[in-house]
Design brief:
With 342 residues, the protein is of the alpha+beta class. The protein folds into 2 domains: 250 residues; 65 residues, no CATH class. 66% of the residues lie in helices and 8% in strands. It has 11 helices and 4 strands. Strand 2 and strand 3 form a beta hairpin.
Length: 342
Amino acid sequence: MSTGTTKAAVRHSVRVWRGPLRGVTWLVWRQHRWAARVLAVLVIVFAAGAVLLRARMAGYIDSHHIAGCPEISRLPACAGTQDAVIAFRAGYGQVIDLITTVMLLLPAATGMFLGAPLLARELENGTDRLAWTQSVSPLRWFAAKCAVPLALVLTTAPVLSALVTWCLRPAADEVSGAYWYQYGTFAALGPVPVAYCLLALVTGVLAGLVLRRTVPAVAVTAVLTGLWSYVFAAVRPRLLDTVTTRTASGGTDASDLPDDSWYRGGGLLTASGERLPEESCPAGRGYAACLREHRVTGAYLDSHPVAHHWPLAWAESALVAGAAVVLALMLLLVASRVLRRR
């Protein structure tokens, strides 16, 4: 076989293997193919585990009739179920905690290991200039470098989030004790982890482009991802107005609320409807006299009921996605200047 025939055969095989991908997009896909394979295996393992775990938890709950029963309950239907609920939490609590922890760390892992090295490694090693000598403009190189990881995130994160949400639904809140408003549980369900993964990815790419060193970019991305999570978690309870529950007693005991309500505070109510802090009448010998002096007629409890879960989740996800868009615009501005200068 002649040399020309061999080269033609090689070119033909490459064309067939590439499929719809061409040029720099194919090159970027080749660079991320192992990450894509790892993510695919992760999704498959997660899906198999989710099916098995959901079936076992649902079977236990149905056979012991503990659906909607917390460890301590005043509901007549939950009488005598305490031992079964304790056994359920002992058997499945660690697995549920592990799942929510993995989903909580998923955005940080996305930013640190997928976003931060994306441009930093190229700029650090100078391989970006090599790509530009192959009839590839810096803008096209930048777009292809960002498009493939973005596609991986938008494919993997929603699937993992949907699997976790579906898997934990039978044991949600009361039975497992993993209430929807808890930090790890809220961050693992619905659209929330998807939005945070997008924000972490953009944060990592921007850090890598600015610092141009892989290790510092990874460290900065880890710190910023944790900061974003802390800030938005602090804003979370303010995204919707709380629901006020009034009680006839002067106490502000959160046990007067449903078990799945997110208690946000309470205080005393006077005859005129004025709200007083609970500390206005400290418990002690003069407590009753203090209530009479302030003309206290009852108490109020502010909380987010379980019906606020998904509105809060979508509101926070929209806020996080908006932050990701702002950072993406900053990324485009910085990229245009950095790439033009290089």
